[in-house]
Amino acid sequence: MQELTTLQELRARTPLAERGGVLSESARWRGLPVFVKTLMVDDPGAQARFQHEGRVAASLHHPALVPLLATSPRQLIFPFVEGGTLRERLDTGPLSADQATSVALGLLRGVVYLHAQGVTHQDLKPENVLLRAGQASWDAAQIIDFGMSHARHLPLDIHSGTRMGTPHFMAPEQFYGTRGDARSDLYSVGVLLFDCLAGEPPYADALGWLAGIHTTLAELPGPEALHPLLRAALSRNPAQRPTSAVGMYRELCAARLTLGLPPPGGTGTTDAVPGLVVHGAAEDGGL
Ligand SMILES: Nc1ncnc2c1ncn2[C@@H]1O[C@H](COP(=O)(O)OP(=O)(O)O)[C@@H](O)[C@H]1O
Ligand SMILES: [Mg+2]
After folding, report:
1. pTM to 2 decimals?
2. N or C: which end of the chain has fewer CB within 10 A?
3. What is the mean pLDDT of residues 101-128?
4. Domain count, the chain
């Protein structure tokens, strides 16, 4: 990651969106196709949030996360990932159980890494997942957008009601204004898995569910072997969710095995071995 002091010259700029004072563009930088976020306003709150996102992104290095290539005072420069978001993929229809669980495992290995770094994402949803080359598989799924994240090592508490995510993927405790924790991310992964299997998230009236106006759990999609995990992850009570991302990863691998689906990555990864090795990295180390 390069920390540059001057605004970087971009070529072939194509604006994609402007939100909260931040312009997103695709462009070319030093000959590379890039995705660039540029801070457009001088509002101190927007500046602080932008810097926070950059500092968190700069501290993370994992294949399930899109890396930050460079920063300048008002720019965050990422490699442009071709293939679109998981949202775009789901707009064409649900995934198979194999694809859905594979994507969820890909996300979970990223979440395991994040949590081990003391970072919670807090805004996991299909718009914040890219599928490289449009592949719905564990090694193609990449998490983006640390705009809502909380990092133990950074002072700024970004989750101060400044930006409300979509209610569908938000854990109930986040809706009530408490800062989410690791289990809030696991709730969001549960909703993501549900969405992948059903083609839509659990509740049409997500706000009503979050506010406790209706409390009946949505009918669970996909094979029954996945239902205990879905039910647990979608619990209103964080204590009833999987206890950690590693635990959820293992449970999902076990559910896949009962469906006759191998652990992703072929042999060498398993749900059943204590001291689990996930894709070549030790559980207690650099996942
Ligand atoms: N590295 C990237 N490559 C290609 N497209 C990207 C990349 N990062 C983000 N996008 C696209 O831009 C959208 C917004 O990016 P995101 O970082 O989520 O910003 P926001 O804070 O506006 O939600 C994403 O939903 C995705 O469609
Ligand atoms: Mg986003």
Report:
1. 0.92
2. N
3. 97
4. 2
Residue 273 covered by a domain? no
Q: What is the mean pLDDT of the chain?
A: 89
Does 34 lie in the same domain as 53?
A: yes
The reply to whether 138 and 220 lie within a common domain is: yes
Is residue 280 one of the residues assigned to a domain? Answer: no
Which residue out of 86, 128, 145 has the highest number of ligand 1 atoms within 8 Å of its CB and is therefore the one to mutate? 145
Closest ligand to the CA of 130: 1
Whether residue 146 contacts residue 53, with contact meaning beta carbons closer than 8 Å, is answered with yes
Mean pLDDT within 72-88: 97
Pocket test for ligand 1, best of 144, 148, 149 (most atoms within 8 A of CB): 144
CATH number of the domain within which 67 lies: 3.30.200.20
| Residues designated as active site | 123
Torsions phi, psi for 83 (to 5 deg): 135, -15
Residue 231, φ and ψ in degrees, nearest 5: -60, -45
Asked whether residue 97 falls in the same domain as residue 175, the answer is yes
DSSP result, 122-176: S--SGGGEEEGGG--STTTEEE---TT-EETTS-----SSSS---GGGS-HHHHT
Ligand 1 within 6 A of 78 CB?
Answer: yes
**Do residue 142 and residue 14 come from a single domain?**
no
What is the residue range of 261's domain?
86-266
What are 233-244's pLDDT values in tens digits?
A: 999 999 999 999
Q: Which atom of ligand 1 is nearest to the CA of 127?
A: 25
